[in-house]
Design goal:
- The chain has a single domain, classed as 2-enoyl-CoA Hydratase, Chain A, domain 1 (Alpha-Beta Complex).
- It is about 30% helix and about 20% strand.
- The protein contains eight helices and ten strands.
- The strands form two sheets. Strands 1-2-3-4-6-10-9 form a seven-stranded mixed sheet. Strands 5-7-8 form a three-stranded mixed sheet.
């Protein structure tokens, strides 16, 4: 349920469970963690690109697994988040359709997020009686302010990618594409230090317009 594509200098990772809107299961978390760890150690890859198969990015944790009895070992979602946080390889996420729960909070740990203008995001943790994971209550407030973060997290309000762009500090690029940003990943990450990728901002608009084919207006959210 996780597909990968070796694109040379970057690795594409596709959540491939479209019949469940790419909801994540325990084995999928484990596989994602292993893929991130291995890509992080492979100097061949300059970036890792994460996206979802079909019309949606990720519906979050498969709700049928929420009732599973917890074991004494590290839960698979936590293992995945730890791998995400500790990885040095730049992470780029491409989001279309719906992103829910951890499908949203993982974006706060990405280096770049490309979202379709009409993408819908929701973090329904409190509605489900759950605690937001991945330091999302802290990171989200840094991006959009405490009051807006409270609306989205405490009230479980859905919001659009366009609204996230307006409320956050990052600039918006209206791009005509729904394709993965593979070429921009290669262009910005000539070495493995994610911090050096900020030089990608120089001429970023022309780079993206050249590398993406016209399909659909998209927004850009930079970390």
């Amino acid at each position: 349920m996780i597909r990968t594509h070796d694109a040379g200098h970057w690795l594409e990772v596709i959540l491939d469970r479209p019949e469940r809107r790419n909801a994540l299961t325990g084995p999928m978390y484990e596989e994602l963690a292993d893929i991130i760890d291995q890509a992080d150690q492979n100097q061949k890859y300059r970036a890792l690109i994460l996206t979802g198969a079909g019309e949606h990015f990720c519906a979050g944790n498969d709700i049928s697994e929420l009732s599973n009895v917890r074991s004494s070992t590290e839960p698979p979602p936590i293992k995945f988040l730890r791998s995400l946080v500790k990885a040095d390889i730049p992470l780029i996420a491409a989001v279309e359709g719906h992103a829910v729960g951890i499908g949203v909070t993982l974006l706060l740990h990405a280096d770049f997020v490309y979202a379709a203008r009409d993408a819908r995001l929701r973090m329904p943790f409190t509605a489900l009686g759950l605690c937001p994971e991945g330091a999302s209550s802290h990171l989200l407030a840094q991006y959009v302010g405490q009051r807006r973060a409270n609306e989205w997290l405490l009230l479980s309000q859905a919001f659009s990618a366009e609204q996230a762009m307006e409320d956050g500090p990052a600039p918006i690029f209206w791009l005509n594409s729904r394709l993965l940003p593979c070429a921009p990943a290669n262009a910005c990450c000539e070495n493995r230090n994610a911090k050096s990728c900020w030089r990608y901002w120089n001429g970023s608009a022309s780079c993206l317009q050249t590398c993406w084919k016209a399909k659909k207006p998209c927004t850009f959210w930079g970390k």
